[in-house]
Amino acid sequence: MTERADGAPEIRLVDLAKHFRDVRAVDGVSLDIGAGEFFSLLGPSGCGKTTTLRMIGGFELPTGGRIELRGRDVTNDPPDKRPVNMVFQNYALFPHLDVGENIAFGLRRRNVDKADIKRRVHEALDLVHLTGYEKRKPNQLSGGQQQRVALARALVNRPAVLLLDEPLGALDLKLRQRLQIELSQIHRDVGTTFVYVTHDQEEAMSMSTRIAVMSEGRIQQIGTPSEIYFRPRSRFVADFIGESNFLSVTTEAGSVRLTDGRVVPCSVNGWNGGTQATLMVRPEVVRLFPPADAPPGALHGRIVQSSFLGSETRIAVDCDASDAPVTSSQFGRDRIAAGELTPDREVALWWDSHDAVLLPVQSTDEEE
User: What pLDDT shows up at residue 363?
Assistant: First the structure.
């Protein structure tokens, strides 16, 4: 994490809480965000991510806890007294103003010199690839262009922190994917700290330097996209991020056993013997073999569904090791040709021990 020269992070939340009557929307959130990070708050609807963002921006006052920006306590400061700007999902552009006037609005309120306003508006338009659109009204722009204007209006004020509340949520898939690339490039160009709220796991994974996964007002895990995906610390995180297979197991000295006593590949580093646990393995690391060629520890079952998805073939295998079918993603040609992965075929499933992750059984709703 990048810190300021004085050692303080750009944003620090300490035991932050927000209660709406009996509802604990945010329940004791503590985290540090370093200068220049692209930090995402990720979770399902109602998990507290937007409320947390609004408290950072000053649009909601906390019930408890503390908010620091650049080492200064701003917990009770109004939005205009904080070095932050916010980009909303609905853009919030002024329909009666043209693009240039929308972008210049905040600068004019601060009585910035006219020549400086013109220069900074031009720079902001160039940054979001809208040079030449100065005189257009918002209703003459596409949704993606309106979102760029909203982004330019926020960045032109040169905030220390830019808060983004699901800014791409109203756009169609292809446009959203294109703007994810552009937003990442803008972040690299300006170096401003971005705090991004989304319920879309792929969106968070593709753009973020770090992610905080939230559930029921609490942080379940903070880490890089790779850490969150490959080494989740709870079943909730493993289930929410990507696709996962889960098996009930018991740890032993140097091995992991299924409920029927079979040993399956998995590292037990840090786990005591005789512990009930959940084994998580991602579909893309589950390999398929003909039963006769199965390695030791492989599971045996019968294909119940084979779905061709273009870049991959998704195979669901019914085996007695799991209550639900175990899923395998096959890319290109594997040991068994994709065209032969038909329902009712008998196959063996296997994965490398380092690709499996052990999770506490009672971790679904627990905080990190």
Answer: 43
